[in-house]
């Protein structure tokens, strides 16, 4: 039996993340401030409110909705998955958390937020780096959704930037040595029942990540 992919999210259960994993042939478990367990074959760090800037050595001048309990739990959880070398996908807040974990920081309020945040999702074009996962799945240029007012600033150690928006905001990252990936956008709102005509179909990306986790999980079982 395949192991489970852990989704670490906010206090309120978010069905979109669970559906995106399960409809991509994965076993999903959604929890708030979860603990690491060996049975987990992958981790999704879900979106949510802002991280406390203390974790990236800044004073708070624009961060909102801080949940320090979640910040601490997810940084510890990420550390455990990093040391186990298991796949991780960070989405929006989770993408930013990955960068902070590796020593980077965040822009607390992006001046270009008019194209990145509105009621519902904003839609904008992005440019991907060749030889990245996203380039292999979707090519050089494609549209994504967006709903955020913060973004990656200083890039963390070992982090490669693989996608930008047209105004220079970092939209995706990959770790150079570990199976760790982050996207600033929300693939769980661009696939299956949430498929949109104005963005790419992100089910291809979600299936790729679930397959990565399942393949890695089979390797753990053989060890």
From TrEMBL:
Gene Ontology cellular component list: cytosol
GO MF assignments: hydrolase activity, acting on carbon-nitrogen (but not peptide) bonds, in linear amides
Name of the protein this chain belongs to: Gamma-glutamyl-gamma-aminobutyrate hydrolase
Keywords tagged on the record: Hydrolase
UniProt xrefs under InterPro entries: Class_I_gatase-like (IPR029062), Peptidase_C26 (IPR011697), PuuD-like (IPR044668)
Xref: Pfam families: Peptidase_C26
SUPFAM superfamilies: Class I glutamine amidotransferase-like
